[in-house]
Amino acid sequence: MKTSSLAGIFLFFLVYIGPLGVRPIIIPDESRYGEIPREMIASGDWVVPRLNGLRYFEKPVLGYWANAGSMILFGENAFAIRFSSAMAAGLSALMLFFVGRKFAGGQTTGVLAAAVFLTFLEVYAVSTFSVLDGLFSLFMTGTLVMFFSATMEDRAKKKTGLLAVSGIFCGLAFLTKGFLVFALFLVVVVPFMGWERRWKELFRVCWIPILAAVVVSLPWAVLIHIREPDFWHYFFWNEHIRRFLAENAQHKESVWYFFLLLPGAALPWTFLLPAAALGLKKDVLVSPIVRFALCWFLFPFLFFTVSSGKLLTYILPCFPPLAILTATGLLNYLKKGRKKAFSAGVSALALMTGIGAVTLLVIQMWGPPGLGPYTQPWKWLLAVAGLLSWGLCSLMSIRTVRPKKKIALYAAAPLLFLFAGHFILPGLTIEHKAPGDFLMEHVHRIRPACLLVSDETTLRAVSWFYKRSDVYLLGSTGELSYGLGYGDSKHRLLNMEQFRELVLRHRGSGRVTLVASARKFEAWKDRLPEPRFEDVSGRDGFVIAQF
Description:
Structural class: mainly alpha
């Protein structure tokens, strides 16, 4: 078991941490979550989040602090802005190991729960990308794991300590994404304590985590209110109430959205969920940890389902309990000598990966020109190798007799494909979503006195790569509309006529530089003066024009 744990840690750093800096920075999310902490470091203002110098009140501050800390350690680069997300996944897996070992059947269950969690496709994708969901999920996991541990503890002093730690994690989650943590905590804990018939205890102990959460979050909450009195009004109503209830909520999706996407997000374990469900029968459902994990998965999932605004990353906090349920169910199923559902699931996965590998090979080798996602042969060969190894290693788990080894082989099967994912980003994605290399080709043209103008699509990247927080915005405002509404920032928004006047005022000097998506620039071109310099990265890429 010690060897397995060390191997797991090594593979985590190999697959999750080592290649973090390989892929280019993707817009808009990664450039946003790099630029806000970069501006904190540059300005020395660690209280008020700003994007391109504009007030940005969509999230609290802790996620930006975490990325800023990484940047201080590792520099202002892709690795640094992804590091906290990846480490959040590793720490979440460590918590699952400890809770599985103590409450769900010993070290084997703990190791497998951690392995299942880290190989969920959504967990891997989100945790190697710079967004705040991974950090929030870590703190949410800590909140709930510590609360559950407290409910299982008889010693009063230790119970109080665990409840206080649960509250500390709750406060950290609040500082990452706000009031959502309290809603998720309640929809998990209240049904669980009711199921356990421990209502009175819930009301008796709830004040401890509440007090700890307040102590953690209050200092910054007061400071931001003093500095920016409108923060809490905007953040509560726009980022919580409107996103949850409004008809015009951001990222509005159908009520079936998460049901349709969950099977893909839970790969490769989707194919073994029937076997795991068979292992979670009545004799296992009396287990408190299984009951808690069911409440932890089901009720937050339903909570996000009824919300108007939806993104696939929102349900990331549902994957830690799903890992516990999957590991526990599969071990119980296989220990009873049953294997039919396991073998059927593995065979279906192997068939899927085989079809995927053959399809990619045929498209790249014999498909019409321009249809294949890759122009570099080594990329699609690596993708095919990853898919084939995934399927073959999965099939090996069928032939293995011991239950632990069967699941371990299945968990290890996608590792080559996941590792390859850092290197095989399709060329069209790079052209459309990664302007960094193109922008840096022209960094010598961006002098300190240069007036930088950008469309909303590329603004975060322009600020990040050129280290500028004074970029003018041309056209639609998107998520920057609130910050641009302040009196000291309104002048940063230009309509087409104002931009023309700016160009004519400095025409021929090269002082005015416009960066925009190629498609927007093409639509604007007839209304713009002739640039003295123009370069484009591709039809679906970006344009830089100097006037």
